[in-house]
Amino acid sequence: MKRCTKCVMPETWPGISFDEEGICSICRENEKEIDFDWNKRQEILKEILKKYKNHAKEKGNKYDCLVGYSGGKDSAYILWAAVKKYGMTPLVATFDHSFKLSEDAEHNLMEIPKKLNCDHIRFTIGNDFRNALCKKGIEVMGDFCWHCHNGVGTLPARISMQWDIPLQIWGEPSAKYQTYGAYSYDDLEEQDEEHYKKVFQAGITPEMVLPEGYEFRDLLPFMWPQGDFELKAIYLGNFEPWDQREHVDIITKELGWRTAKVEGTYVNWDKVDCPYEPVRDWQKWMKFKFARTTFQASKDIREGRITREAALKLIEKYDGNRPRALDAFIKETKISEEDFNRLTKESMKKRK
Fold it and tell me: What CATH code is carried by the domain that includes residue 326?
């Protein structure tokens, strides 16, 4: 299997390309960061924040921004930065995937906003509907996470519209890691309906995942709100360097954010907010023959933390192993392992 000659991302990752030196398009996008004028970008950010602080005061609104929050490392850092670094008063909104969280993940989700004196909305769907959407997601796209990925994008938009909170603060821009080519890393990327369709939906519309026995209106929480409303949804990673290890150090020391060892990775801080991320990694392996260690190791190579040789050894150790979490996933979702495997593999044939 062909891999990038700089990192270890493989040719099977959809949308990836390689130049004449064998270096992948993700590495080339990240190289643009060298030329960024972060001081200038910070000034742009401060002007945006000032504008929407004033907007909130004029409207008599308590909240001058909205932060979508999962309790994971990225959203915890965004929330810390919004409050402590930039002096904002966010409303925190969580689209809960509705799977039972570990004690540490539940702590991160519920206690961190309290420590930052933030008001917090947590939205959860029912188990039967979640299970039906998981199965349909596997059937259509080989990924049970459709309901979560779409809800994470649409819930903040719906709240911004209904509560008149135009400013949303997100984390790293999609162009830093994705290969769809929809956005360049030197863009000041923003979330809107077009962006949502390209990055969150990625070609899979609600009509395609409506489970049997449900009505289209049941999918409204997963759909972009209709009607005009002001929205300025920015990515913090466009305005300051995005260093996940530095962020983890900040949130653990200042907020008591909890790390946790998760299957399929060599770090203890990645994807602690979902108990079934290892199951999604397993699906990724079934479809593309790589999983999260490949992705994480590639980031670490770009940041100069490990060598390519060390990355290949980590991949051999962690990627491609059936996760123990699959047993719990099967029990909770009532999707048999036979159906899980069959639908995941068949979805690839449908999308080719």
Answer: 3.40.50.620
Tokens of 333: 């979702």
Helices (H), the chain: 25-31, 38-59, 73-80, 103-115, 127-141, 146-163, 193-195, 244-255, 277-288, 292-302, 308-318, 325-333, 337-351
Question: What's the structural domain count of the chain?
Answer: 1
The answer to whether 122 touches 152, Cβ cutoff 8 Å, is: no
Domain that holds residue 331: 25-351
CA distance 226 to 220: 10
DSSP assigned state of 24: B
Q: Which two tokens stand for residue 349?
A: 């044939």
**pTM of the complete model:** 0.94
Each residue's pLDDT tens digit in the chain (352 positions)?
899 999 999 999 988 999 999 999 999 999 998 889 999 999 999 999 999 999 999 999 999 999 999 999 999 999 999 999 999 999 999 999 999 999 999 999 999 999 999 999 999 999 999 999 999 999 999 999 999 999 999 999 999 999 999 999 999 998 887 766 678 888 899 999 999 998 888 888 889 999 999 999 999 999 999 999 999 999 999 999 999 999 999 999 999 999 998 899 999 999 999 999 999 999 999 999 999 999 999 999 999 999 999 999 999 999 999 999 999 999 999 999 999 999 999 988 765 5
Q: Which residues 6+ apart lie within 8 Å of 253 measured at CB?
A: none
Q: Is residue 9 part of a domain?
A: no
Three-class DSSP category at 95: strand
